[in-house]
């Protein structure tokens, strides 16, 4: 899988989030939640117009270029919020976390901002760079869609069901286009042609003749998926207050964060879940005890790493999943007629 170069123009534009957020933080009118929401919508609208004007060729070739440009800007904003809440920077986005989306100040909110400001940001730059050079980015797009969907669904569900449900402000409704636009982007990404592979008909037939025991890597992945399924079911029972001793021991000695009333841990999102389980903004009684850190990290890292290994296996050795082409097209034509 080729890694496309990053889009320098979008990177430069996204960094404008630094002076913009600093200036807005010192505007006294933004102390009201409604003005925060309106100003945020206005800035995103102006940013879209600027992207369309400065990169009309790229947008005409692929409209997702504008989406990635705007989302790259919001990723930088999210990174600023995360750094601010961890006291690495000051004076940038206090107005937004106080009057716009106060749940971003939770441990989960901080880590979801870190994830968006790093992983998603690099994906936006990579996909925009591919568009600039008229290259494919389907695999990057699929990874982004899966990551984005998991992040936003967990975040929104926790906001609505958790203890911050009473803190929902007008800025919360900006997530509506944040949901609808990726749905449209997903259809565009899925419609892109798949990358060509060098699998011949003989390679496909030979790979598909092998049993599971003859494919040790696949066997290991199947075993992993079965164990991950049981682990998922077990955690589901834990958050549903299952009265068994195993669930009681696990939730109090290994993952007490699952009891946090913010509700994010009950839905799950691995990176944010692991970080928030130990973050200082999580109340002490809900943090992972120090003597169980090893077990907690091993289980959750494997839980997060497995799907990545599965995706890597499918991309690097796709012959097993291909439908073998007919060895004799003329014979197949006669058979059909």
Characterize the structure shown.
- The chain has helices at residues 8-14, 17-24, 33-54, 56-61, 64-85, 94-99, 107-132, 138-161, 175-190, 201-209, 216-239, 245-253, 264-267, 270-276, 293-316, 329-336.
- It is built from 16 helices and no strands.
- The longest helix is centred in the middle third of the chain and has 26 residues, at 107-132.
- By secondary structure, the protein is mainly alpha-helical.
Distance between the termini: 40 Å
Provide the helix percentage. 55-70%
Mean pLDDT: 86
Order of SSEs: HHHHHHHHHHHHHHHH
Structural class: mainly alpha
- Proportion in β-strands: under 5%
- Estimate the global geometry from the Cα principal axes: flat
Report the major sheet. Answer: none
Show unreliable segments.
none
**Radius of gyration (Å):** 23 Å
The DSSP helix count reads 16
Number of strands: 0
Summarize the structure.
Helix content is 66%, strand content 0%.
Give keywords.
single chain, flat, 66% helix, 0% strand, mainly alpha, 337 residues
Write the layout of secondary structure elements.
Blueprint: H1 8-14, H2 17-24, H3 33-54, H4 56-61, H5 64-85, H6 94-99, H7 107-132, H8 138-161, H9 175-190, H10 201-209, H11 216-239, H12 245-253, H13 264-267, H14 270-276, H15 293-316, H16 329-336
Helix pairs in contact: 1-5, 3-5, 5-7, 7-8, 7-14, 8-9, 11-12, 11-15
